[in-house]
Amino acid sequence: KAQKVRSEELKGNYDFVTARAVAKAKTFHHWVKHLIKRTKSFEGGGIYYLKGGDVMEEMKELKLPYKIWELSDIYSEEFFDTKKLVRF
């Protein structure tokens, strides 16, 4: 079940949290980490974060496993030229 809601309004645990980049990844992770179900593997849950620009410095600072998809590889619209989907 998907919900469009601010993280501070949520209670419980979720498989995934998604967001457009509203803050640095480390800050956002701090806001929502208590909402993610605990699993032993990276495949079990996490955060999907839409982010523009260079995200590598933020990922180094976060110090968590991550995967990045370049959205320009999927979409041809100019808007996506610098956008990435980051999972951590």
Label the structural class: alpha+beta
Which stretches are poorly predicted, pLDDT < 50 over at least 5 residues? none
Q: Total number of β-strand segments?
A: 4
C-alpha end-to-end distance: 20 Å
Largest sheet: 4 strands, mixed
Q: Fraction of residues in helices?
A: 10-25%
Judging from the principal axes of the Cα atoms, what is the shape? globular
Q: Strand share of the residues?
A: 15-25%
**Total helical elements:** 2
Q: For the residues shown, what is the average pLDDT?
A: 88
Query: Order of helices and strands, N to C?
Result: EHEHEE
Strand order of the largest sheet: 1-2-4-3
Radius of gyration: 13 Å
The multimeric state of the shown protein is single chain
Structure in words:
The chain has 88 residues and is an alpha+beta fold. 17% of the residues lie in helices and 24% in strands. The protein is built from 2 helices and 4 strands, in the order βαβαββ. It has helices at 25-32, 56-62; strands at 16-20, 46-52, 67-70, 83-87. A 4-stranded mixed sheet has the order 1-2-4-3, with helices on one face. β1, α1 and β2 (46-52) form a beta-alpha-beta unit. The longest helix has 8 residues, at 25-32. It is globular and about 40 Å long. The model has no long low-confidence stretch (mean pLDDT 88).
Helices and strands in order:
Elements: E1 16-20, H1 25-32, E2 46-52, H2 56-62, E3 67-70, E4 83-87
Parallel strand pairs: 1-2
Antiparallel strand pairs: 2-4, 3-4
Keywords:
88 residues, alpha+beta, 4-stranded mixed β-sheet, 17% helix
Summarize the structure.
The chain is of the alpha+beta class.
